[in-house]
Amino acid sequence: MDTCEYERIFTQYFFGGSELAADLVTLDALGEQSPVDWLAGHPRLVLRMKAAQQRCLVAMSAALQPHATQLKCLPTTAENCLAEDVEGLLGEMCRHVYPPDAVIYIVTERNYYCTPTSLRLMNLEGMQRATPDNVEEIRAALIPGIADKPEYLSGKDILGYGPAFAWYQDRQPVGFAGTHASFMRDSVGNVGMVFVKEAYRRRGAGTALVAAVADALLARGRLPVYGCFANNIASTHSAEKAGFLFAGFSCRVFVADDMEVHINGEKPILSALEG
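RESULT FIELD:
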């Protein structure tokens, strides 16, 4: 595949299969009729935005739709959408709709993909592929650090969606990266679940694990993709050092009545604009 084909596959994956016009901001309602799964079931989600490959898609709640024209000025390139004024615009738009004492959370993510020419493999001693023979050992040692609940991922979940690797030290697994379930599973592999025990960090293990999973996906003809919170510096560095190319930006806006609300089991970590 050439560069254009990789870009096409990533764009199709990123926007959930929607065909969007380039250089335009496409607006849509937040709900079951949306062309993308916008997590409409979350009661506090009021807006979601994605920008990649000169395309931008914004879905919003009914309360925000009268103010949708403000979003037409959003830039359609992912690089420009990372500017702080975009978050400010989204926050200000919500301020016109929701009570002054509401708390507005803005959760921003960076999205990447990797190609055979951009991939940078690392030779790290102790790297092993996850297999049916060692998966339960890996799960018992590491899954509590990857998921909020140890039972969240079974051995079948770890191996069921694509390649996974563990890093062993002193014959014990101390690091892991695998493949998430994802849209377009036959052509895309979502690299994730990256975790290294604290005592073994800052040795390049996270980067090596991410690169190993990406290499295995490419060998299967699947495009490796990667996403993380924008302010998770360690995660973004791991992706970029492994050769992943920044390609897209996404933003979710939640409105709550207090600062203690948890989104997907965690507090949002990028921005909290207090009323």
